[in-house]
Design brief:
mainly alpha, 79% helix, 0% strand, globular
Length: 396
């Protein structure tokens, strides 16, 4: 498989995670009606949170992928994603839907983790950061198109068909993935036993570089997941403009995609570490200015200013991720599967859990989200500047 096809396929496999979220957001209104929830209920946000929480099994898939290779785990993940998606579409209750979404999240975690590990097997350092940024640029067209696709499906069909679209797309990507070759040679695979697994986990979590950049991604994802899960509620209920939801969400998605593409150029020219430092400083300044405005003029702040700030923050958020993942995984070597699993488990499960707490507080205003932007920015800046290695290193 040539590099361009590999990047395109990797972007499509990662798109399954985004599509399994973004296309469903316009259907939340019908879901509230279907399950008898009050119009302003934030309960549908749990559909997103449980999907993210299914990523907790990444650590198991990581150990298995280091032993049996990336492809075997990839081909387990697709059926889980497909079956969970179909079950969620026909669930008779919200509780069963959440359980099905958790299963779909498990499948997405296997696909996501093996994709990142496969990139790490093939590339290192700034080259990995650039490749991940290109993958993310393609992948980020999903938030631009998915809300409109969801609305288009709703105009001719029901919310169930919206929920069935991601598993149908997964079938196509699954068939395409059969062209992939294994990226982890047999001689580099680890032994599967408790001692070797515990040693791998201990080596990974004792690496300060890995912990630092995984921590950055995790807390940034808390803000990202909270906004995504609550965006329909914020636009439709708090600001009272539901007709603008798809346009605002898509506009922010376009900004995110452009920033990811810009990051690939900046990382190539200045190095991942220099780039991530400047991005996080800008993130914190924007978050601080938005917080100051909310303090001065009340909650919720002016709609135009709020979403301009959110677009900048989300764009920086998604641009940081390829750099932080490359920096976290760069020292991991043949433990990339386990490291990718711990990395993914942390930022999906822990980040989404923190994000769900923020989402729960967004009832009549957006101040909890605004405050989280600034606090998260401060923490990430402290973490990134605690890496005191010389920036003149090749992978800088």
């Amino acid at each position: 498989m040539k590099p361009a096809e590999f990047i395109a396929l990797s972007a499509c496999t990662m798109t399954l995670t985004a599509l399994g979220i973004d296309i469903m957001l316009p259907a939340f209104g019908e879901l509230r009606e279907h399950f008898g929830l009050r119009p302003g209920s934030t309960a549908p946000a749990q559909i997103i949170s449980f999907f993210f929480m299914g990523q907790v099994v990444q650590i198991i898939f990581g150990a298995l992928s280091d032993r049996f290779g990336r492809l075997s785990i990839l081909r387990v993940g697709f059926p889980l994603y497909i079956m969970g998606g179909i079950a969620a579409a026909f669930a008779p209750s919200l509780e069963l839907m959440l359980a099905a979404r958790f299963v779909a999240g498990m499948g997405a975690s296997a696909v996501f983790m093996t994709t990142i590990a496969g990139v790490r097997d093939r590339f290192v350092g700034d080259q990995m950061a650039r490749t991940m940024s290109l993958i993310f640029t393609i992948f980020l067209f999903t938030p631009i198109l998915a809300p409109f696709l969801g609305l288009a499906i709703l105009s001719v069909s029901s919310w169930q068909m919206v929920f069935l679209t991601p598993p149908l797309f997964a079938v196509i990507v699954f068939l395409w993935s059969l062209r992939l070759e294994e990226s982890l040679p047999r001689e580099q695979r680890s032994v599967l036993n408790w001692i070797s697994i515990s040693q791998s986990i201990r080596k990974v979590i004792s690496n300060r570089i890995f912990l630092r950049y995984t921590g950055i991604t995790t807390i940034l994802f808390a803000a990202l997941s909270s906004y995504v899960a609550s965006s329909e509620h914020i636009i439709g209920e708090i600001y009272g403009r539901p007709e603008l939801f798809a346009w605002i969400f898509a506009g922010i998605g376009l900004m995110m995609s452009l920033c990811a593409l810009l990051n690939s150029r900046l990382s190539s020219r200045y190095g991942a570490r220099r780039t991530i430092r400047w991005l996080l400083l800008i993130y914190t300044v924007v978050g601080g200015l938005l917080l100051l405005y909310a303090f001065s003029f009340g909650d919720p702040p002016d709609m135009h200013l709020f979403f301009i700030a959110v677009a900048l923050l989300m764009a920086i958020n998604i641009a940081v991720e390829p750099n932080s993942s490359a920096l976290a995984l760069e020292p991991m070597g043949n433990m990339a599967g386990m490291a990718s699993a711990i990395y993914g488990t942390s930022f999906f499960f822990i980040g989404a859990s923190l994000g769900s707490v923020i989402s729960h507080l967004l009832v009549i205003g957006v101040f909890p989200l605004v405050l989280s932007f600034f606090v998260i920015g401060l923490i990430t800046v402290l973490l990134v500047f605690s890496d005191r290695r010389p920036l003149s290193r090749p992978f800088s």
